[in-house]
Amino acid sequence: SVPPLVLGIESTCDETGVALVRGRELLADVTASSMDEHARYGGIVPEVASRAHLEALLPSLEAALASAEVTLADVDAIAVASGPGLVGSLTVGTAGAKALALGLGVPLYGVNHVVGHAAVDELVHGPFPERFLALVVSGGHSSLLLVRDIATDVVELGQTLDDAAGEAFDKVGRLLGLPYPGGPHVDRLAREGDPTAIPFPRGLSKGRELLRHPYDFSFSGLKTSVARYLEAREASGEPFSRADVAASFSEAVADVLVTKTLRACEEHGADTLVVGGGFSANSRLRELAAERCAQAGVELRIPPIRYCTDNGAMIAALGSAVVRAGLPSSPLDLAVDSQMSL
Ligand code: KG4
Ligand code: ZN
Fold first, then answer.
1. CATH number of the domain located at residue range(s) 130-305 in this protein
2. Peptide bond before 214: cis, by omega within 30 degrees of 0?
3. Which residues of the chain have pLDDT under 70?
4. pLDDT digits (tens, 9 = 90+) for 254-268
5. Closest Cα to atom 2, ligand 1: which residue?
C-alpha cells in the first residue's frame, strides 16, 4: 500500500519550511528565510521572525503543493515542529498546522526540531541502522543523540552547557570584525591559518569535568580565550595572524565535537554517525569527522547542506517516521515548547 502523504511545517527560528514526504521520499521542499532582515541587527529579532513566518507560510505551502503536483485533499497528516525554538515563531507554524489539520480532518503531529535534524538524513541516505549517533550542531543547538528508533527512542547523551557551536563561531566572527553571521567567514579565514598555532582550550575534556560531562560541550570559555588573546595582542601591539586565530579556534571546536562523538560511538556500539544542523557546513568539522570516522570504522552520513540548515523536509521526515511507528497524534490544543527536551 502507498504510505501516507505527510506535510511538514518548520518555523522554529528564522526559516519557514514546508515540505511533503511520502514514506522516505521527499516530494517537495520549500524554504523561505528572514535572515536578511536580521543581519543588520547582528542577531535574530524574534518579532521580525514571527511576522516573516506569517507572511511566508501560505505562499510556501502553495509552492510545495504545486511542486509535488498534489492538492491539500491528498495530504494524510500534518507534522509541525512544536519546539525547541522562539516562542512567537513556533506559534505561527503550529497555528497554521492546527488550522490545516482541523480543516482537512487529518491528524496533527507535534515533533521535536532537533530530532528532525537527524531524521532528514533518511530521505537522503535511506533507512537508518538499528542504532546510530547523531551530532546536531547549529547556531541554536549542539546535541549528541543516541538513536535506536528515530520516532520512539532518542536519548540525548549530551549538549552544550552554554553557546552552540555556530553561536561561538558567530561571536568569534564579531571579535575578528567579520560580518554577521560570522560562522562561514571565520571558516573561510581559518583555511588560510595554522590550526596548531595557538593552543586554545578544549572545554569539558579533562579530569573531573570530563567525568562529570562526558558528552556535554562548552564553548564559552574557548570564546573568552580568543577574546583574551586578541586583547593582549592589541594592547601590546605585538603582531599576530587573524587567520591563525580563526584556524586554531576552529580546530578546538571541531576536535572537541569529533572526539566526544566518536567516544560515544564506541561506548554505545554504534557504527554510524549522522551529522546535521547548519554548522555541519564547517569545513574543519567535515574534514576531521571524515578522517576519524574512517579510522574508527564508523560510517559518516551528512546530508547536503540545504537539508542541514532549518527546512520543512526534516519535519516531514520525522512526521513520516512517527506515523510509520503508529504513535498517537497530538491534540489540536498542542502547546509550543520553546525549551523542548527529548
Ligand atoms: O542551522 P542553522 O542554519 O540555523 C540555526 O542556528 O538553526 O545554523 C546556522 C549557524 C550559524 O551560527 C552560522 O554562523 C553557522 O551555523 N555556520 C557556520 C558555517 N556555516 C554556518 N559556522 C562555521 N563554519 C561554517 N562553514
Ligand atoms: Zn535547527
1. 3.30.420.40
2. no
3. none
4. 999 999 999 999 999
5. 278
State the residue for C-alpha cell 524554504: 31
3.30.420.40, 3.40.50.620, 3.40.50.1780, 3.40.50.970: which CATH number matches 5-120+311-324? 3.30.420.40
Q: Is position 113 annotated in a ligand binding site?
A: yes
- Per residue in 203-229, pLDDT (tens digit) is 999 999 999 999 999 999 999 999 999
Q: What is the DSSP letter of 18?
A: E
Q: State if pTM tops 0.90.
A: yes
For residue 143 the three cell numbers come to 546535541
| Ligand 1 centroid – CA 29 distance (Å) | 20
Residue 40's pLDDT is 86
85 CB under 6 A from ligand 1? no
What is the sign of the dihedral through the CA atoms of 45, 47, 53 and 56? Answer: negative
Element (H, E) at 83: strand 77-83
* Residue 17 near ligand 1, beta carbon < 6 Å: no
Longest dimension (CA), the chain: 72
For atom 5 of ligand 1, which residue has the closest CA?
139
Q: Which atom of ligand 1 is nearest to the CA of 12?
A: 7
Do the annotations mark residue 141 as ligand-binding?
Answer: no
- Compute how many other C-beta atoms are within 10 angstroms of the C-beta atom of residue 73: 7
DSSP notation for 94-141: HHHHHHHHHHHT--EEEEEHHHHHHHTHHHHH-S--SSEEEEEESSS-
Ligand 2 (ion): which residues have CB within 5 A?
Answer: 138, 310
Q: List the one residue out of 45, 46, 71, 56 whose CA is nearest residue 9.
A: 56
Please state the domain extents for the chain: 5-120+311-324, 130-305
Query: Which residue is closest in CA terms to ligand 1's atom 23?
Result: 183
- ipTM of this complex prediction, to 2 decimal places: 0.97
Q: Which atom of ligand 1 is nearest to the CA of 166?
A: 12
pLDDT digits (tens, 9 = 90+) for 126-160: 999 999 999 999 999 999 999 999 999 999 999 99
